[in-house]
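INPUT
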Amino acid sequence: MKTKQYSAKIFEIELENEDGFISFFDKNYLFFQNNLIVINGQESDKIKNYLDSKDLKYVFNLDIPVQKKQKTNLEPIQKAHEKKEEPKVKPIEKAKTNLKVLDKLIRSGQEVKLDGDLLLLNRVNSGGSIIINGTLIVTQIVDGSIRCNGDFMMLQASSKANIVFHDVEVDNKFLQDKLNRVELINNEIVITPALKETSWV
Amino acid sequence: MFPWFGKKSSAKTAKDRLTIAIMSDRSNNSFPFIDELKAEIIEVVKKYIDVKKVDIQKETQDGVEALSIDIQLEK
Amino acid sequence: MGIVIAVISGKGGVGKTTTTANIGLGIAQNDKKCVVVDFDIGQRNLDMLLGLENRVVYDMVHVMDDGIGLKQALIKSKMSPNLSFLAASQTKDKSVLDSDKISKLVSGLKEEFDFVILDAPAGIESGYEHTIEFADRALVVVNPEVSSIRDSDRAIGILDSKSKKVKDGQEVDKFLIINRIDSKMVQSGEMLNSDDILEILSIPLIGKIPEDKGIIDASNQGKPIILDDNSKAGQAYKRIASRICGEKVEFVDVESHKESFIQKVKGIFS
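OUTPUT
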């Protein structure tokens, strides 16, 4: 019996309303051409035909055996002015005594390893890396690699970057164009964009 | 104005200079294996006694080419 | 006391040695005493670019190890009385590079010259580390191309952690030279522009050098292109040399592409 085992990228989405679903994929279908789309909701021919026409692979209501799933709010992909409500950006609570503030460009080959929280006021070049056990905030673009196991991280990553949050590789597509907040909620990775104009104290 | 008129080909000059330079490099380096030889000698001698440094020089005396090997021992 | 400038790049083939030769000559033409040193052990290149390959008798190892005096080993260039040259050794044995001996060599050169320019080897191995160890300043040469920029970033990172100045709590002043800029490609968006490069590398710019076919011709003949008044690359090198000597020189735009009518006509026939 011929068998094959390999990993695939899965994108999971709740089907709330068909038009919303279609309008979302109209804008983003190119991103998911290499994904298996798992749709939680009522099976619908309209959706099936639509996805077939875009040559996307999908399955309905499949319980995927993975520990952590990546989920984004639909809203982040849309432009900021289309949002109905302002996204919540929680202020940085309590000034932790182990917050390290670094104003240094992380160059290729350099590694910042920290057991604590880090505020980096500079960029991370391709080939540079940050490995951190606490909260991470990077104010300029990340081209390099990030491994973070903290409560949350805020960063803007380019297509070159390699971002891993709690051992899960975060898809760069969701982190481009603006500063994004990445956190673990109920065992899922949730990515929310921060407001475009973020004023730093 | 018309750079393709009358410009002597510098490629010929380059070829001449390179020929001379490379011949000179080759004659100076008649033992290209010297670095590897040094490393291996150090390894062999180390088996018996501690070695600090190995120096290999090419010597020419009365037309005879020889390699002199100096082994500095670790005190 | 002279200033020691290391010319570095990370990636090979981007124009370090060409830059060393031209800037060395440019500084000499600015009436400053300058020595250029080939630190690419086992691979002599600087001598050929200066047309001095047939005058090398003693190299830096002879000076460091065999008791040959600096004055005997240094070769005076016929192109300028202010320019001298010290050749690389021909052995590829890295043990010839000893920090104490290099320190002595560099100190000796600093006493005789206003500027000591060290042509670093490509890569980030021990040869490179030894070259940057006693540098006061560094010229970082990049091409507007991703691997060159990334390798330079790496080289800068190492410079910022391994040079003696840094270990003494100071910083080595680094300056960027963007070499082989093709204005057509920058205009069409096929080539990174200097702003992008400066953003990533984050060091001050000291010069932009346009792509120039005359460079090959110059090295064929052993005559650095700075001697060609008509060459745009040569003019760029002249500006950089002046800046190094302390002059304030305006940056010339080498990135916008303005095709003259003659060039368009030539384009049809080539």
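end of record. Chain C has one domain: 3-269.
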